[in-house]
Amino acid sequence: xxxxxxxxxxxxxxxxxxxxxxxxxxxxxxxxxxxxxxxxxxxxxxxxxxxxxxxxxxxxxxxxxxxxxxxxxxxxxxxxxxxxxxxxxxxxxxxxxxxxxxxxxxxxxxxxxxxxxxxxxxxxxxxxxxxxxxxxxxxxxxxxxxxxxxxxxxxxxxxxxxxxxxxxxxxxxxxxxxxxxxxxxxxxxxxxxxxx
Length: 196
Description:
Blueprint (H helix, E strand, L loop, with lengths): L6 H19 L13 H12 L5 E5 L5 H13 L3 E5 L2 H14 L5 E5 L2 H4 L6 E6 L6 H8 L3 E10 L5 H12 L4 E6 L5 E6 L1
Parallel strand pairs: 1-2, 1-4, 2-3, 4-5
Antiparallel strand pairs: 5-7, 6-7
Helix pairs in contact: 2-3
């Protein structure tokens, strides 16, 4: 999977990585930055998605589409589709361009809107990546977990870098008997939850 990334997808990944690095180096506030996962987290997403059972794949918080590209890589290999949600119009435009130039439009459905309005209509969720505004993590978690298939994955980013804000959410997930969960100290901290 990692050795067969198409040149146009790899070029777009590198372009988004460079933009993220420039914005962070410039000290732009988080609200003005692209904000995306680190490459190692992207690889983890691809591996976890590729190992997910059959079912619906969801991403909450598309951003510029960087993490979606990693998930799409797994979707192409496993013949799945990923539904990704984004509320910010400027990021929707950037993500659409990302998916077009990377050639992943056949496996990615971008929904402009609040995922919480759509999640109640989804069933048999096998993979979910959560990387949105931290204040909605718990609500998204509660919307997704009851709809997950056994063995399905929910992965949340930034649980160490945003430890103070996300502590109650993380503690809830770690104590939830519906999932087996752990915090992986990769990049900005990743919460892995497997539906029991």
